[in-house]
Design brief:
434 Repressor (Amino-terminal Domain); single chain
């Protein structure tokens, strides 16, 4: 299971909203090179940046992090997060 889904979700949400990397950079007051690193999975945002990105994209931090899918409960009564942490305890 891939826990680090931020870059994929960020790309999806930006595409769905027709927002380029340069536009997002202007919206959050960052250099385009920083946004490029987020989009390409080379850098993870800190909490303040994550909240700012989710605000300007009219999304939630959970959606950007891919937690919505990870919290889905399957037929065994466990979520993907439950399974991940059970396996790594």
């Amino acid at each position: 299971m891939k826990i680090n889904r931020f870059c994929d979700k960020l790309k999806d949400i930006m595409t769905a909203n027709g927002i380029s990397q340069s536009q997002l950079a202007r919206m959050i007051g960052y250099k385009p090179s920083a946004v490029n690193k987020y989009v390409n999975g080379k850098l993870q945002p800190d909490l303040d940046t994550l909240l700012h990105i989710s605000y300007v994209l009219k999304s939630s931090p959970d959606e950007l992090l891919g937690w919505e899918e990870l919290n889905y409960i399957d037929e065994t009564g466990k979520s993907e997060l439950d399974k991940y942490f059970d396996k790594n305890d």
